[in-house]
Amino acid sequence: MKKQYKYLLNESDIPKQWYNIVPDLPNPLPPQLNPQTMEPIGPEDLAPLFPMGLILQEVSDQNYIDIPEPVLELYKIYRPSPMYRALRLEEALGTKSRIYYKYEGGSPSGSHKPNTAIPQAFYNAEEGVKKMVTETGAGQWGSALSFACQAFGIELEVFQVAASYASKPHRKTMMEIYGATVHPSPSERTDIGKQFLSQDPNTPGSLGIAISEAIEVARKEEGTRYALGSVLNHVLMHQSIIGLEALKQMEMAEDYPDIIVGCTGGGSNFTGLFSPFAKNNMESNKKTIIRAVEPQACPSLTKGVYTYDFGDSVGMAPVVKMHTLGSSFVPDPIHAGGLRYHGMAPLVSAMYEDNLIEAEAIGQRECFEAGQLFAKTEGIVPAPEATHAIASAIRAVKDADQRSEQVAVLTAMCGHGHFDMKAYENFLSGEIIDYDFPAEKVKVALESVQK
Amino acid sequence: MKKQYKYLLNESDIPKQWYNIVPDLPNPLPPQLNPQTMEPIGPEDLAPLFPMGLILQEVSDQNYIDIPEPVLELYKIYRPSPMYRALRLEEALGTKSRIYYKYEGGSPSGSHKPNTAIPQAFYNAEEGVKKMVTETGAGQWGSALSFACQAFGIELEVFQVAASYASKPHRKTMMEIYGATVHPSPSERTDIGKQFLSQDPNTPGSLGIAISEAIEVARKEEGTRYALGSVLNHVLMHQSIIGLEALKQMEMAEDYPDIIVGCTGGGSNFTGLFSPFAKNNMESNKKTIIRAVEPQACPSLTKGVYTYDFGDSVGMAPVVKMHTLGSSFVPDPIHAGGLRYHGMAPLVSAMYEDNLIEAEAIGQRECFEAGQLFAKTEGIVPAPEATHAIASAIRAVKDADQRSEQVAVLTAMCGHGHFDMKAYENFLSGEIIDYDFPAEKVKVALESVQK
Fold first, then answer.
1. pLDDT digits (tens, 9 = 90+) for B294-312
2. Residue B271 and residue B218 share a domain
3. CB-CB under 8 Å, B76 with A6
4. Do B319 and B356 fall within a single domain?
5. How far is residue A304 from each of residues A143, A450, B81, B280, measured CA to CA in Å?
6. What per-residue confidence (pLDDT) applies to A314?
7. What is the Cα–Cα distance from B394 to B20, expressed in whole angstroms?
8. What is the CATH number of the domain that holds A138?
9. What is the phi/psi pair of residue A435, to 5°?
10. Domain range for residue A211?
11. CA-to-CA distance for A229 and A202, rounded, in angstroms?
12. Is B73 among the domain residues?
């Protein structure tokens, strides 16, 4: 083992291809369905929403896909990202195990999201798209796509979940610095928005509603395309750049992870990290445990049902087979806004069904405690989403300590928490609530799915 | 020239010594004076405020001082910092010149401040200090010292200028995450604070008052020591780590700066960057132009007087010869809180007097425009302080373009602007004001100095 604080790659080490795990899975993914006909969709169904370059990636059977040169050029402004060994956290825990974390918070917008925002904007620009539209919850995805769109000369409209728009105005400002236009969702901008506002003018909104609004604009405005920040295959594949770099960095550390843990909202950050290691699990004698961490308040993998469901509130997005808590389910207001999605990526869901990955759910208090310990020792204040990954990593090494084993744990620190100080303020003043699993609400939401 | 986006050093490249420019100056620095006696101070005068390790550095005649191992260990969690070539900014400007920037925003607290916070906490801990006290304006210094103190097991109390405490509550939260106690200044915690509050219960406070409060606590509480985040020689010397790394990184780029620009509040970040290059100017045939940038609203170098003045509001800090606008001067509320100090570091002031460096003042509107262009092209949203450096760098290359010359400009991007979104919001909505040089207020403040 080569014990260092950081393992840094050079610009020339940025992978030149993304890794697509889909064709390597033991079973093919169930098809996506057209929300109107409930028939398997073809590229022509997706064409009003996405450029053909991304549609072909969504259904690709190739293991490796070349990263276009203009995308690589933009990756270079923040990639390769560092992999750290959490030596000071290990010391504070008194563990004999090793904790590594791949840090994506150094990107322009502060998370892993530009890894897919940049190629998405690129493929749209390549096909002549002049305007794009998307939704955002906590604002990480919206910030990333704002940066990427202006880099390729594309106008961007963002629908930000109203509760986040109000509670995190600084994310809106960041999107505007990059040149985007931001609406609180639901908004008067769309028919769907007007409908939700007429039912409840003070609705906090949801990611599902914001997706529906964005898709409505994309469908109505000639030449405008939609973009999604997680869940879909092509999005997860773009994130594989994280794991491909981490593979090289683990080599630099002369180590290999026994356990990989990562937080999952839609699943893109975590899949990005684990997919090259999962390939090794499937194809070599490696036996890395891969464990998703989700919030107790929104545990789609551990408590959801594996079934076909809508990705948005009104059924405009493709229908996919995934672990879901029901598309009408509105989770309790935990601070990790990026983990408040009712479903899990179809790819992650299928791998969970096939026992290629496991999952656990953790309450937010334990996560914030882990986050503060991480800040005190490693310096970086993690985003509330990322605190889940840290809490799980700490559990993993404590568990090994109890068994008197030494393990190497690798985790994904997907973003910094500089825009989440209100959440930490609540935590520090003891006001934070641990929400139990909302069994009754989920039951109701799932009943409507299964109809 | 080796054209890359980033020039990255390895952990093993972190300099093992700081560079102290003071003994290399053509003229010795004027002595600091005891504020009570107005006699030159000796180490014993400073002992109630600082540990001996730092006092000896303050007056050292050694060119290079070893960085202690525990300091190096903590530097490793974020150093070496990257030097970037601003290729996309250059392209947007259409310039043929080269712009390099050394980025310190990747540190735990988001600026260059940990470079000195860590050694200051270390030398205090080494001498058994259990509690420290300091002031902070915008909050960068307070955050950095909070992290450093907890790393060495030292309790910390911070007096944050009331206006910043109210307008930037998230910086307070960050300090609390690291374990510090934060008071708005002036506060009921000190006699000086009570006095200012009795005059005006709604006073916005000032850095001068906050320094006085912190010094009062350090003087009154047995064993408690004070720390200053800029201005003093030892602080500037700790920051030389920036320039020493940049020197190696310019070598990697196979280039050398014709012009170095940097923003100056107290002067530590900029001196840190330029000092090794200034040494080359003095000792070799190098002729790099070194240019400080200050805000039009608080131009201590370009409009201040070079004289002895107080560093704080009530005259408890050592009296130093510096460029000053008068210790009672309260600058207009520009967003770059870190550049709102009435004086300039004695070292920087002396070098300006000796024509070793030059200076210019820029209004904040031009700076924010430069900052937004930087964010759009380079991705990083700069702190309002750092936008001054970018505005000056842009001026420098435009000037070279007009003369059909190609120059290499190196600048210091001292921090990110994630906690300054309110400032950008004002800029984007067109509400930002360009304050002219406040000639009358400065005249009044300087009259009381010269008495």
1. 999 899 999 999 999 998 8
2. no
3. yes
4. yes
5. 29, 12, 44, 65
6. 82
7. 30
8. 3.40.50.1100
9. -85, 130
10. 21-67+113-233
11. 26
12. no
The C-alpha of B299 sits at a distance from chain A's nearest C-alpha, in angstroms, of: 27
The verdict on residue A320 lying in a domain is yes
Q: Please tell me whether residues B213 and B317 are part of one structural domain.
A: no
Whether residues A277 and A220 share a domain: the answer is no
Find the closest chain B residue to A418 by CA distance: B418
* pLDDT score for B89: 98
For position B312, what pLDDT does the model report? 84
Percentages helix, strand, coil for chain B, rounded to the nearest 5? 45, 20, 40
Model pLDDT for residues B108-122, shown as the tens digit of each residue:
999 999 999 999 999
Subunit contact A110:B418, Cβ cutoff 8 A: yes
Contacts of A375 in chain B (CB under 8 A): 108, 177-178
Asked if residue B32 has pLDDT above 70, the reply is yes
Nearest to A168 by CA among A197, A215, A204: A204
Domain boundary among B233, B251, B280: B233
Q: ipTM of this model?
A: 0.94
The shortest C-alpha distance from B447 to chain A (Å) reads 42
The dihedrals phi and psi of B16, each to the nearest 5 degrees, come to -95, -10
A409 in the same domain as A266? yes
pLDDT band at A451 (very low <50, low <70, confident <90, very high): low
Q: Does B88 touch chain A (CB under 8 A)?
A: yes
**CB of A422 less than 8 A from some CB of B:** yes
- Shortest CA gap A397–chain B (Å): 21
Domain boundary among A183, A206, A233: A233
pTM passes above 0.90: yes
Residues 6+ apart with CB under 8 A from A236: A21, A230, A267, A268, A271, A272, A275, A345, A347, A348
Q: How many domains does chain B have?
A: 2
Instruction: Indicate yes or no: CB of B174 within 8 angstroms of CB of A381.
Output: yes
Mean of the pLDDT values across residues A155-167?
92
